[in-house]
Each structure stands twice: as C-alpha cells, then as structure tokens.
C-alpha cells in the first residue's frame, strides 16, 4: 500500500468527492494516490484509469463499502497497485478488476475483498517479460469470489487464503511454455488451474 501520496476521500460526510465518478483521471496518474471509499454503495465508472502506485481502500471494511461496476486500469498503468476492504459487484461479461496489458511493470494486489458478478475476479494482462523470476505481478489474499472463474493473468501470480468459483487461475495467453508463468497457491479453495502455467502448491489447498 502506498504511504507517500495524496489521500482522496469519496462518499463520506467530509469527503472531497461525493461519488467515484467525480474522481479526475489525475488522481490515478499521480504517483502514490490513496483513494478512501467510505461506507455505502457507490457506482464505479467504466473508465480505464492510468493506475500509478494507486491504493483503493474501503473505510469500514468490505461489508460496508460496496462498489457497483468493474475497476479498470488502462495500458498506461504502472507500479504496484492495491485494492482492499471492498465488496466489488463487477460488470457482467467482463472481469471485476481488469488491468490492461502494459509495456511496463504493473502489479495488482487485492486483499480482504468480496468480488461478484464478473467473468473473473481479477484479470491482469501484464506480460511475463516485464516480471522478474519469482516476483508475482498479481497477488490476492483473503478474497471471496463468486465470479465465473478466479484469476486470469499473463505473468506470475500468487493466491493466499482465498475462495474462488471455477479455476483459481487461467492464463490469458497459452502460446508460452508452462514455465513462463508460475502460479503459487496457498490455502486456496477453488478448482485447479487452466492454461499453460506451472502450478506450485505450498500447502493443502485446491478443491474441485
């Protein structure tokens, strides 16, 4: 989570912004921004935002802070980006969290969230060529997802203490050798992976 950027407040009694739709694109392109979502149900815009070491956090926890609509990152996104403490009711037929393919490193780290409605809970099209060996571009921890499938990525991925419907991990591109993408699962309750990848199980985990 970013600790050195500007904090922007949404939906609270003293917030700068009443709704997420009022957030300007500059909030995302500015490095290290922290977006606090206060309790209530808020509609998230369909815009592809340029995430840049951005943190989106629910103030009050996932049961109180609810977003309707998928969170989308543009091809200009970069850095390490964090989403936590939210219920995300994603848009049907697309991923609930969707980070487009970028030419630069773009990490997506999701924790303590309930995720519903999308084809995948999290999709990160970050290419393996920009991710160091053993360094996951996508990490989920303590998420519960009823999306059609769990995670969809093109680079190293880690899932910890999470429950997901369908395959826990599906590679976007299957042309690569399995060794190119490593999926590490620790206490993940979901079906086995799908696609060309190497699966590493660090403790008793996968169920079908």
In short:
The protein has 208 residues and is mainly β.
Question: Can you offer a commentary on this structure?
Answer:
This protein is mainly β. It has one domain (7-201). It is built from one helix and 18 strands. The strands form two sheets. Strands 1, 2, 3, 5, 6, 8, 9, 11, 13, 15, 17 and 18 form a twelve-stranded parallel sheet that branches. Strands 4-7-10-12-14-16 form a six-stranded parallel sheet.
Biggest β-sheet description? 12 strands, parallel
Number of domains: 1
C-alpha termini separation: 33 Å
**How many strands appear in the DSSP assignment?**
18
Mean pLDDT: 92
Derived from helix and strand composition plus strand pairing, the structural class reads: mainly beta
Shape: globular
The arrangement of helices and strands along the chain is EHEEEEEEEEEEEEEEEEE
Strand content: over 45%
| DSSP summary: helix tally | 1
How much helical structure, as a percent, in the residues?
under 10%
Rg result: 16 Å
Q: Would you identify the regions where 5 or more consecutive residues have pLDDT less than 50?
A: none
Task: Chart the SSEs and their pairings.
Elements: E1 7-10, H1 25-29, E2 34-38, E3 40-43, E4 48-49, E5 55-59, E6 65-68, E7 71-73, E8 79-84, E9 87-89, E10 97-99, E11 106-116, E12 120-124, E13 138-145, E14 149-153, E15 157-167, E16 169-171, E17 182-191, E18 198-201
List keywords for this structure.
single chain; 208 residues; mainly beta; 12-stranded parallel beta sheet; 6-stranded parallel beta sheet
